[in-house]
Amino acid sequence: MALILLLILTSLCIAGREALSLSDCGAYARRPEYSDITVVCGTSAIDLAIQICPAIYTGYNESLLILNRIRNNVDCQGMLDTSVAPPVVRFSFPIREGNACGSNFLTTSATGTGIFSDFSNIQTVNVSGVVRSFDPTIGTITYNAELKYYYSCAYPLEYLINNTQVDVSSASIALKDNNGSFISTLSMTLYQDINYTIPLIMPPRGIELRKNVYVQVVASNLTSQYFVLLDRCYASVSSQPSNSTSFNLFVSCSIDQLTTMLENGDSQKARFYFPAFRFIEQQNETISTYYLHCITRLCEQSTCSTFKQCNRNKRSVETTVVQDSVTKPSVLTVAIKAKTQDSILSKEEALSAGQSDGRGASVGLGIAVAVLVVIGVVAILMATTFYRKLKRLS
User: Fold this and answer.
1) Strand 260-263 relative to strand 186-191, pairing
2) 26, containing H or E segment
3) Which chain regions cross the lipid bilayer (predicted)?
4) For residue 386, is it within any domain?
5) What is the pLDDT of residue 272?
6) What rounded mean pLDDT belongs to the chain?
């Protein structure tokens, strides 16, 4: 009883200080509707906006709208915003299990489609909850209707980080935030050292072939319950992965013999490296430019090990058509340029080659003349001997 009285007094004080009255609502004063709540599924937080005037019309104010029955946490309380029309009460809470203001987390699995069709287990996590009204009426009956505002956000846990340009050299990242996705918390960066401390800045003429390219995919500002697991990384000639010649650096447990995996599925970062190469179809170009793509999975710590089992189809170098992604991926771009073999000789090299060819021709001609002279001498000797024998017989 004391707690109820305290809550009533608190709500009255707040109402007297900042709450709207029914007359303040004007034309916005009406009965509640299903569309009164707006949900924004961000990458690090979920934002709710509930029209307050229908709640006032029903007999409540912003202090009586309780998120997931949590009343004693200031971070989970709504804030009145009268700067918009109609005015709303806003809730904002992080997407971290144990710190999401009582939200429910449910992970489901389904067979992958599109670019993820090779994977039999694509996970999605659903974050849901409800904002309820608290009726301060003391007694047996009440005339205030109970209000419930449900919210739900679904986050796929498989992403395509693509358009990482490999010019075999500048690291530029273009990022686009998608609602209901963790894609903007993921980034892919190239380094030139195995300690991942020196970013790889591509020289204008590209990096040398066979030079190691160190790749790191990191999840930042993400709830600690998820690890980063790379399912597939491949390079393609085109910036878009569809209709392009591609080369798999690794697919699940099938890893190219020159690709070295350092860390994958054990923390919120994944690391590997490979020697710079070139595509044969770019042999007439001075610089071989290609693009690195990684299909990245966010898996719960307890389940990451199950996705690391080597039970998927192995692949090798192939010309393949990659279908569109299930979700619209954000684009991360990092350029890599690789030098090809020089097809044009320098002036000095050309002169040197010409002189070498001249000397070779002279030597060959001398040998041919010597052989002819020897043959001629032998023929003369044989003819002389034959003539003498004939003369004796006669």
Assistant:
1) unpaired
2) none
3) 365-387
4) no
5) 94
6) 74
The answer to whether residue 371 is domain-embedded is: no
Which CATH number do you get for residue 29?
2.60.40.3210
Q: State the amino acid at position 316 in one-letter form.
A: S
CA nearest to 217, candidates 337, 97, 100, 330 = 330
Query: Among candidates 165, 161, 160, 321, which has minimal Cα distance to 242?
Result: 321
Query: Of all helices (H) and strands (E), which one includes residue 262?
Result: strand 260-263
348: tokens are 């000095």
Do 148 and 252 reside in the same domain of the chain?
no
The number of domains in the chain is 2
Q: What is the pTM of this model?
A: 0.58
- The DSSP letter of residue 225 is T
Alpha-carbon Rg for the chain in angstroms: 37
The pLDDT confidence band at residue 175, using thresholds 50, 70 and 90, is very low
Handedness of CA 17, 23, 28, 30 (dihedral sign): positive
User: Looking at residue 28, what DSSP letter applies?
Assistant: G
202, 330: one domain = yes
* Residue corresponding to tokens 């029903």: 58
* Nearest one of 279, 277, 164 to 230, comparing CA atoms: 164
Phi, psi of 292 (to 5 degrees): -100, 130
Residue with tokens 């490999």: 166
Alpha-helix residue ranges (DSSP H) falling in the chain? 2-18, 22-25, 52-58, 304-307, 347-393
